Amino acid sequence: MKNQPIVTRFRKSSASQGDQQECVEVAHTADGGRAVRDSKDRDGGTQFHGPEAWGSFLDAVKAGFGS
Description:
Strand order of the largest sheet: 1-2-3-4
Strand content: 15-25%
Order of helices and strands: EEEEH
Low-confidence stretches: none
Number of helices: 1
Largest sheet: 4 strands, antiparallel
Mean pLDDT: 88
């Protein structure tokens, strides 16, 4: 997916605490998808995921994928 305008601030998970935690930050994009970046390397690049891909990811997480 190509870059989309980011329309919200990046947010870090509330489960991430302290400076040494590995975490990602997520922001909404203009097409309803999400932009994702590494919270410890914000200049290292941003991944863009369309609304359908993001929805599929959330469904998999809710179903316990990766647990």
